[in-house]
Design brief:
With 454 residues, this protein is α+β, with helices and mostly antiparallel strands. Helices cover 13% and strands 30% of the residues. It has three domains: 198 residues, Jelly Rolls, CATH 2.60.120; 175 residues, no CATH class; 61 residues, Type 1 dockerin domain. The strands form five sheets. It has a seven-stranded mixed sheet with strand order 12-13-20-15-16-18-19. Strands 3-2-4-9-6-7 form a six-stranded antiparallel sheet, with no helix packed on it. A hairpin with a 2-residue loop joins strand 6 and strand 7. Helix 7 packs antiparallel against helix 8.
Length: 454
């Protein structure tokens, strides 16, 4: 297999310049709250540690985990590729249990790597990595596929080239699992992961992010019950609704739900002057009852009288686009900017929802979000993400990151064809009281990047 030459820095730099804006190539972008944090040299690929920290490797991805072997010997790249001219670089790594040094063709030809990254609650960092492998790798974060790499597709002028992958979409507060599956059937095997920008000095690596407020309830452990995080905070409104759901007594997260209800409340305290532009809830659920196709979500504006049907509910059927099936596991996305509502809980969910509403003003006023699922829905976790801007941001900069680009366009599309939140809704660029294609056109016309790209 080809060696990983020291001049990969130049080829990767060219790739960044032609493929990404400088901000997208930044190696470690931290939120303002973490500006003083130390640089994450611990994320760089190389030898793991015996205490289980750092990169760990396995021949099958199930067991046999040992510290990753690094620097992995290669006749040209020893001891490492030195791809960062600023002096921050990673080592090649692979699975090797010993004894001695691996020789060309030493097994295994497929290896698995994992890294446990813990992030403090609050604003999530953006982490962008330069990655490469001989010959193929797939990178995931918390089960979310970030990207794949094929060496044969990244060999300009016969030289291996690193590519940029943004880990941010898979990150969450608390524990994070970075995982790599790599395969090579040739002579030398290696994986490379560098969480720094090869073009920027360490002083330029820490950059302000767009303001995003996140709230995670649960521990993302794939329905493992009995943990402290499974007891969710609940507002008095949630408790009252559960008390009135006589046929659906309350349970905790990660407990099987058959005619039961799971309730929780997200804090959504925003800075003064914040203007919400998007809010979504991600729910990881399992349908544990026999008849889950009428399961619903109740929220701040729902009401459960002591006798009678619950009113203003959200059917899982409407969020999924199809009836939920018994035993199935779903990642349900609830877009608060465009929420389908049904006036009453029904024995069967049929037809279209009664209305589609914008709940962003409700979230702004309440500063919290109630979420109650009934009656056959087991809940692993609930994650609320809120994007906001300020009145002094440029028109169209819906996430207040100093640029008008595809991120702002995507925010606008989340609320397309709904009523604006207020007269000062930053998404209502033409001030007609609605979010429409006319606002989309105005935003695209004002994009600060070519083709409204990242």
């Amino acid at each position: 297999m080809p060696a990983f030459p020291t001049n990969i820095a130049a080829s990767a730099a060219r790739w960044c310049r032609r493929s990404f804006a400088m901000a997208a190539c930044a190696g470690l972008l931290l939120a303002p709250a973490a500006m003083a944090a130390s640089q994450r040299t611990d994320l760089l690929s190389g030898a793991g540690r015996a205490d289980g920290s750092g990169w760990q490797a396995s021949p099958n991805g199930v067991d046999g985990w040992i510290p990753a072997y690094g620097p992995y010997p290669n006749p040209v790249t020893m001891p490492n590729p030195h791809i960062n001219p600023e002096g921050v670089h990673a080592n090649l790594m692979w699975y090797w249990p010993g004894p001695g040094l691996p020789a060309p063709g030493s097994p295994p030809t497929t290896a698995y790597f994992r890294y446990q990254l813990n992030l403090e609650p609050g604003l999530l960092p953006q982490i962008v990595a330069l990655v490469a492998a001989d010959d193929q790798m797939t990178l995931t974060v918390n089960g979310v596929t970030i990207g794949s790499y094929e060496l044969a597709e990244h060999m300009p002028n016969g030289q291996p080239e690193a590519v940029v992958m943004d880990l941010t979409p898979g990150l969450q507060p608390g524990a994070n699992r970075i995982e790599i599956r790599a395969t090579d059937n040739g002579s030398y095997h290696w994986v490379f992961f560098d969480s720094y920008n090869i073009m920027a000095s360490p002083q330029r690596v820490l950059v302000k992010l767009a303001p995003v407020l996140t709230s995670l309830i649960g521990d993302m452990d794939d329905f493992h019950g009995g943990d402290p995080a499974d007891t969710a905070p609940r507002s008095q409104h949630v408790i009252d609704m559960q008390d009135h759901l006589v046929a659906a007594p309350a349970i905790n997260l990660d407990q099987p739900a058959v005619n039961r209800s799971v309730g929780l409340s997200h804090d959504a305290t925003l800075p003064d002057g914040a203007l919400i532009t998007s809010a979504t809830v991600r729910l990881h659920v399992r349908m544990t009852g026999d008849i889950p196709d009428n399961d619903v979500i109740l929220f701040n504006e729902s009401n459960v009288p002591e006798q009678g049907q619950a009113s203003r509910v959200i059917a899982l059927h409407d969020l999924l686009g199809f009836p939920p099936q018994s035993g199935a596991i779903y990642d349900v996305t609830w877009n608060l900017a465009k929420t389908p509502l049904r006036n009453f809980t029904a024995d069967a969910v049929t037809g279209q929802p009664d209305q589609v509403v914008n709940l962003l003003p409700m979230l702004k006023n309440a500063q919290h979000l109630d979420v109650l699922l009934a009656d056959d829905t087991m809940v692993d976790f609930s994650q609320l993400s809120i994007t906001y801007t300020t009145a002094d941001a440029a028109p169209g900069d819906l996430n207040n990151d100093g640029a008008i680009d595809r991120d702002d366009l995507n925010i606008l599309l989340l609320g397309l064809n709904t009523v604006a939140s207020a007269s000062n809704d930053p998404r209502d660029l033409d001030h007609d009281g609605r979010i429409t294609v006319l606002d989309v056109r105005k935003l695209v016309a004002s994009c600060t990047r070519a083709l409204c790209g990242k």
